[in-house]
Amino acid sequence: MVLKKYNINPDLALERQKCTFDIEEIINIFDGGKEKTSQRRKIEDVVLKSGLCHDDVPEECMSLKERYENAVRKSCFFSKLMKTELQEITGIEDFETPAIRRIADALFKDISPFLLHLGMFVPTIIGQCTSEQLMIWLPKALDLQIIGGYAQTELGHGTFIRGLETTATYDADTEEFVLHTPTLTAHKWWAGGLGKTINHCIVVAQLYTKGVCYGTHLFMVQIRDLDTHMPLPGIKVGEIGPRMGFSSADNGFLGFNNFRIPRNNMLMKHAQVQKDGTYVKPARHGKLTYQTMVFVRVTLVNEAAFNLSKAVTIAVRYSAVRRQSEMRPNEPEPQILDYPTQQHKLFIGIATAHAFQLTANWLWNTFKSVLSDMKKGDVGTLPELHALSSCLKAVCTSDAALLIEQCRYACGGHGYMLSSNLPYIYSFVAATRTYEGDYTILLLQTARFLVKAWEQAEAGKTVTPTVSYISRSLKGEKNSWRSTDEGIIKSFQAVAAGKIALCVKSIRDRMKSGLDYEDAWLLTTVQLVDAAEAHCRSVILETYCNEVRRLTKSSSDNVKIVMHQLVTLYLSYWTLQRTGDLLRYSSISEKDIDFMQRQYEELLQHIRPNAVALVDAFDLRDEILHSSLGAYDGRVYERLMEQAENNPMNAEPVNQSFHKYIKPLLQGKL
Ligand SMILES: CC(C)(COP(=O)(O)OP(=O)(O)OC[C@H]1O[C@@H](n2cnc3c(N)ncnc32)[C@H](O)[C@@H]1OP(=O)(O)O)[C@@H](O)C(=O)NCCC(=O)NCCSC(=O)/C=C/CC(=O)O
Ligand SMILES: Cc1cc2nc3c(=O)[nH]c(=O)nc-3n(C[C@H](O)[C@H](O)[C@H](O)COP(=O)(O)OP(=O)(O)OC[C@H]3O[C@@H](n4cnc5c(N)ncnc54)[C@H](O)[C@@H]3O)c2cc1C
């Protein structure tokens, strides 16, 4: 849709006059510097001027088939634009750049069917191929001569990878693998792009050679003819059907009937099958084939931050424009943003988007550093990265989904309109809580790491930095509550340490009473999930505080003030959310809690004048927001009416169903 131009709504104009800081400074901080901001805007200009974002009818008014076809059209032209103009004009070759990710949302309100190509197919090639394999597939994939996806999950198993049923049996006579789907539940299910779009796929299957099963491995499989796009003989493939979101992502199913692929199509960077069928196991770490999942989990923290920033921008702008009720009799109706309860719903969204974005950047750097260690043959830092990426993916996607839904509640009835974009944003982020490892499952992975760390610290061994609080706790360090940033972080670490200690005790007590380790663990899993979540909170709080301190060192005083107000709001919010835990594991008193409550309420008042400016500082163009409620000009009512009038349902004054059914009913002739 072409956005109509309106004058700025006077309430929003006034809000912007109240701003106390230089918005551009905050924009630069989150982009990573002035130059990065200018580069991002250049990319956005190119895409927006390309005309690719235009739809003749709103996406939500199209049929599922039309939506898919429209998304394919845009994906193809966008890919071409990335290969040509974007590369030439901006000089950018790295398509993983966050700027490209951001502007992609101007094209797709829902999901691109090509999402998994750059999101998982290419990263798997990079992470799992030998250098010879890399030379074959990577240039083709980057040049889009082949389009791929990642098919791991099956109808019967998603979480339990070891339980996957698809088999890849090596035939030494022909030097081929035979892929087979032995049961109904062994069909691949869910892979993005698989239904109709892709012609290649990374398939995860149980490897059999010389009669022995060596567990799951990765295989490059061509599934469709490159010219006709027909499924190859022996392949059954299709779309799984309508879903809550991801409507244009053509998630698919896939079955193999003794389908043969060359030996070289097993991705052999870590484990190999030699020509005669001899299996060579990975030299360094048994879980290196899971590396793409770690990569995606890291990127999903960024997705949580970005999508939350979109939702809270929409809801804060709308709340500055919307007027409702009376604060005192006969006074004019206030902006709903003036209600402290509305501020309570929204300002935590702004602070959380900051916290998650800075945590995402920090996690990305940690990921790169672990990758560089692994290139040198050192896999020692992988377990901590796995534990961190697991809990951060779980908690950030889950919190973001809740806060996005809260933004929708904050917009009342109009938030329920698809044109607000809030339902789309929510349904996307809700899916990220499940895929790439469900919330509970990933927290249990982190818990496993925490229990081990506890045992190591008990044995007097040094533990990694993110769990060093465990050693302090074991040394008997008592928590004394202080309402400073550092004091609050220490108390949250004391909560995490206390919960891990109880888990360890609970497992040991259960074992003493006769249970084996597995049962003792199983019966403790509710506490283990809780302990991992507490650990994750302490990591986010600490990272957020440290990163704001580091990044605002040379900022103006006003930017320092407002960024720090948000940090304090975040710390106070979580203190008040977790008073039960803090009373149990730290020395916080009722007086301290009263102080934190007052501080929190005062902060809402302090932040209020800057609220609109703070969401403007996410620098999200209207074309990315796609929202009748959240546009920069605040012309909410004009846009809602405009969209209603453009609704295809209103193209004819009387719908044919009147003549077919209603009239006969009215006349008693039905
Ligand atoms: C739940 C999982 C992790 C369990 O795996 P399993 O093989 O059963 O392992 P164990 O629980 O026995 O743990 C063994 C050992 O391995 C470590 N470990 C596990 N995962 C990793 C990893 N990724 N990196 C490094 N190390 C890992 C674990 O810590 C244990 O170590 P110990 O030293 O304690 O022995 C697993 O099955 C899993 O990850 N399940 C989730 C499935 C999933 O994420 N699927 C994603 C499919 S693709 C998708 O969803 C795409 C979406 C679309 C899009 O992204 O856009
Ligand atoms: C939109 C979307 C896109 C996707 N895209 C892809 C893709 O491109 N490629 C791909 O391979 N997959 C994809 N998936 C699949 C996704 O990765 C899985 O759905 C996800 O990993 C969860 O697995 P599951 O569905 O088997 O859930 P289940 O494991 O069946 O989980 C159901 C419930 O059981 C609980 N549970 C399961 N095991 C345990 C346990 N051991 N302990 C405690 N609780 C347990 C879970 O916590 C959850 O609450 C996609 C999924 C979605 C929704």
UniProtKB/TrEMBL annotation:
Per UniProt, subcellular location reads as: Peroxisome
Q: Which residues form the active site?
A: 436
Residue span(s) of domain Acyl-CoA oxidase C-alpha1 = 290-451
Residues that coordinate or bind FAD = 153, 192
Keyword terms, alphabetized: FAD, Fatty acid metabolism, Flavoprotein, Lipid metabolism, Oxidoreductase, Peroxisome
The residues covered by the Acyl-coenzyme A oxidase N-terminal domain are 22-147
Question: Record keywords: Repressor included?
Answer: no
What cofactors does the UniProt entry give for this protein? FAD
Q: What is this protein called?
A: Acyl-coenzyme A oxidase
What species is this protein from? Danaus chrysippus
